[in-house]
Write a structure and sequence with these properties.
With about 400 residues, the chain is of the alpha/beta class. Helices cover about 35% and strands about 25% of the residues. It has an eight-stranded mixed beta sheet with strand order 3-6-2-1-9-11-12-10, sandwiched between helices. The protein starts with a strand and ends with a helix. Bound molecules: aspartic acid and magnesium ion.
Length: about 400
């Protein structure tokens, strides 16, 4: 007998038939003799619909009230799923995030979990029933409802698995696992049997939608066995774990991120301290900078180019414009018609030729590279957004087929 946490996303509980499908998966796991905690998201597009409702009232909602509103979506799912389990003859109880003991910090709309008080879940499990927990929500130290940020239910599930020392955490979704590329862009994309936490983290942060990256970080930190699989098709999914057999495929995936903006500071003084000033200004406003490129100095000035998440574009633009005189820069330019395309694979630093294979694939397709960055497990290029899908296909062909 094992303790298993199963998480089902919004599309897996979208309507009555889907809810019963989920209930059958849970019932089978329970009847095999396992203790089961289920975490669910809001049904279908409920969270988006709730956001629209708020927008009908105000364009500047209080974040506290937004969290109160959005948390209601998951409560519908837990109650309905518990009822469906009852219909299948399985005893089940639903718990909100706060009943389940999620204690978060005070950051409304993107709260982080501070600790888990698991007594309630444990006492309900001891009554030999399935416990169905609302994902994405918790309670802060003011006893106010918080949410964990979009896609936060994955993190809820992994957090419960960590706190209860679960044997397995299964993330059920509407695809069969983690793919070598987005199957909607690359027809020959293949499902991976296994991927390492580090590779999964890169893919998740690069926009592969299948797992929320905070959940992967948490699973890595606590060594949780994680599996991504389909709620609609009972085939083995993808196992995410610490170390993956290095004899296997070197490149695990190709990802594209279109949520990027690129800034160029033109004509900054070619002297010490300039980069420090620019990037500390941005970090004070919690803006993450990714790829950085500095031109060679000429006539005592140089240009500084870097990318930030698209969501921070407006803020970064105003911070930099205000600071132009202080930085001694001539101008700031920003573009958002760009995409970051990356290859990911652990151990690539010890294989020569990964970069040249990638660049050759782009060259053969006449795709121009604006910026390049590398790490031990990935190579990213910044290109025009219009070229992104072609680039993903070309790179995928070069490495994976
Ligand atoms: N319902 C929330 C969202 O749509 C949380 C989740 O799905 O994980 O973002
Ligand atoms: Mg959702």
């Amino acid at each position: 007998m094992a303790l298993i946490v199963q998480k089902f996303g919004g599309s897996s509980v979208a309507d009555r038939d889907h809810i019963f499908n989920v209930a059958r998966i849970v019932a089978d796991t329970y009847r095999d003799g396992n203790s089961v905690v289920v975490v669910v998201s809001a049904q279908g597009d409920t969270t988006d619909d709730l956001m629209e409702k708020a927008a009908e009232i105000t364009h500047a909602p209080s974040l506290r009230e937004m969290d109160m509103l959005l948390a209601s979506g998951e409560q519908i799912s837990i109650a309905l799923l518990s009822m469906a389990l009852g219909e299948l003859g399985v005893k089940a109880i639903s718990l909100t995030g706060w009943q389940a003991g999620f204690k978060t910090d005070r950051n409304y709309s993107k709260a982080r979990i501070r600790r888990m008080e698991t007594e309630r879940i444990e006492s309900e499990l001891a009554k030999n029933q399935v416990v169905v927990v609302a994902g994405f929500q918790g309670l802060n130290s003011h006893e106010d409802v918080t949410t964990l940020g979009r896609g936060g239910s994955d993190t809820s599930a992994v957090a419960i698995a960590c706190a209860l020392k679960a044997d397995l955490c299964q993330i059920y979704t509407d695809v069969e696992g983690v793919y070598t590329a987005d199957p909607r862009i690359v027809r020959s994309a293949k499902k991976l049997d296994v991927i390492s936490f580090d590779e999964m983290l890169e893919l998740a942060s690069l926009g592969a939608q299948v797992l929320n990256n905070r959940s992967v970080e948490l699973a890595k930190k606590y060594g949780i066995n994680l599996e991504v699989l389909s709620s609609l098709n009972p085939v083995p999914g993808t196992i995410v774990k610490e170390v993956v057999d290095m004899e296997g495929m070197l490149i695990k995936g190709v990802a594209k991120d279109v949520n990027v903006a690129v800034f160029s500071l033109i004509g900054v003084p070619d002297q010490p301290g300039v980069s420090f000033k620019v990037f500390s200004l941005l970090s004070q406003r919690k803006i993450n900078v990714d790829i950085i490129l500095q031109s060679v100095g000429r006539d005592n000035t140089k240009d500084l180019t870097f990318t930030v998440p698209l969501a921070d574009k407006t803020l970064a633009e105003s911070v930099l414009k205000d600071a132009l005189p202080r930085l001694g820069a001539k101008d700031v330019k920003v573009r958002d018609d760009v995409a970051k395309v990356s290859v990911v694979g652990a151990g690539m630093q010890s294989y020569p030729g990964v970069a040249s294979t990638m660049f050759e694939a782009l060259y053969e397709n006449n795709i121009n590279i604006h910026m390049i960055s590398t790490s031990e497990i990935k190579i990213s290029v910044l290109i025009d957004k219009a070229d992104a899908d072609r680039a993903v296909n070309a790179i995928h062909d070069a490495f994976i087929n």
